[in-house]
Amino acid sequence: MNRKKSRRVAMELCYSMEISKDEPSLVLENFLDNYEEDKTILDKEYIIKILNAVNENKTSIDSKIEELLKGWKLSRISKVNLSILRLAISEMLYIDDVPKKVAINEALDVAKEYSDEKSVAFINGILDNIYKEEN
Fold first, then answer.
1. Which one of 24, 36, 74, 129 counts the least CB within 10 Å of its CB?
2. Tell me, what CATH number does 121's domain have?
3. How far does the signal peptide extend, from start to end residue (predicted)?
């Protein structure tokens, strides 16, 4: 199974949960019903673990992000960037089998694909500060 691809799907589903306000299992079910590519490469167990971690810890994750924003409010962060941050922070703090540095590097790769250069630097700054706090 491809964790890199699963992580991208998880980010898209985090975004979908933010927009729809649906529960993780429903978002994943709807996604899989419409997923045209090879589903066997996805690590569904990992995806649901991430979605649940984001969903269950959203308040805590958002307050960590907000603490690090200088002159910004959480509402000013694009939903895509917020989804990337929530996913990476969930991996760093709540998923034991993902090294923190891997979570950061993967988040930056996803940000390069879905956002612009300024967003990548912004995401890196937030995640780096959380990494330093946790170590």
1. 36
2. 1.10.940.10
3. none
pTM to 2 decimals?
Answer: 0.92
Among candidate residues 117, 97, 95, the one with its CA nearest the CA of residue 108: 117
Identity of residue 130: I
Contact present, 88 and 128 (Cβ < 8 Å): no
Q: Which residues of the chain have pLDDT under 50?
A: none
First to last CA, the chain: 30
Q: Which domain holds residue 36?
A: 1-132
What is the reported pLDDT for 70? 81
What's the number of domains the chain is made of?
1
Q: Which two tokens stand for residue 134?
A: 């946790």
Give how far Cα 77 sits from Cα of 24, 40, 48, 90, Å: 22, 33, 24, 17
Per residue in 47-74, pLDDT tens? 999 999 999 999 999 999 999 998 888 9
Structure tokens at 15: 């975004």
Q: Which residue has the tokens 């990337």?
A: 84
